[in-house]
Amino acid sequence: MKGHVARIAAFVEDLIHNRRPYRFKASPEEMDALRVAAALASLRPGADRPDRQFVQGINAYINVTVARVLARDRQYRVEVRRRMYP
Amino acid sequence: MVEGASYTDWETIYQDNVVKVYRLMFSRVGNRPDAEDLTSEVFVKSLPNLSLPSPVIQVNGYINVAIRSVLADHWRRHYGAPLVDVEVENIGMAPDVTRATEGTGRAGRILALLPDRSRAILELRFLRGCSIKDAAREMGVSPGNAKILQYRALRLAAEVGKAMLS
């Protein structure tokens, strides 16, 4: 079990390498440190610029996912109507 | 897209907002994989609730609600944070993607207000991307002490940030 200094250090190390950071149950004091570390990580010039492939790829993913959600909702409404007015 | 206008398709909503949402998410989670996942989640959560055409202001409202909820859920799920309302800047108020987000601007101001040693360790780590060993060498301390210095500097920065908001 890591102490709070080591946990925060592991989290910061991951941010610096732009990796998905170490997860753990944080105390309120640690939570404050995590949030401020995340904000500081975006100070590096260009750090918060999205990857072009992500911006293009997510569009297709969202279209498919949203279409699936809407189709499910439509189906649900049809089912409800069928049950209410058989 | 001007404020009084309406969106007629998802594609335009997405194109107008994806970079803004991503940058806002990055300023809150500080890493690419999480920022990408959370950005996707925001759109998947907000778009099916919209009926088109929809006024820009209403779409921005849906996106803002989704951002707050996705961020709060992220900190709760992965770090056990209590589910509280997360304050974020309005996505409709940040039209220039080349400018720093409010979150990034505040982080810079916090850094400027810290005592020298606290600011130095955070600049070495976050701005120059130094390893803990290199940062320790620059500060003239052991790597173990550099980690403690870093932790204390982050706690102090969090307090400065809270004082700025109150």
Keywords:
heterodimer; A: 86 residues; mainly alpha; 3 helices; elongated; B: 166 residues; two-stranded antiparallel sheet; 7 helices; 2 strands; 2% strand
Which oligomeric form is depicted? Answer: heterodimer
The tally of helices of chain A reads: 3
Total DSSP E strands of chain B: 2
Strand fraction band of chain B? Answer: under 5%
Tally of helical segments of chain B? 7
Class per helix and strand makeup of chain A: mainly alpha
Order of helices and strands of chain A: HHH
Q: What structural class do you assign from the helix and strand content of chain B?
A: mainly alpha
Shape of chain A: elongated
CA-atom Rg of chain A in angstroms: 22 Å
- Approximate shape of chain B: elongated
Main β sheet profile of chain B: 2 strands, antiparallel
Poorly predicted tracts of residues of chain B: none
String of helices and strands of chain B: EHHEHHHHH
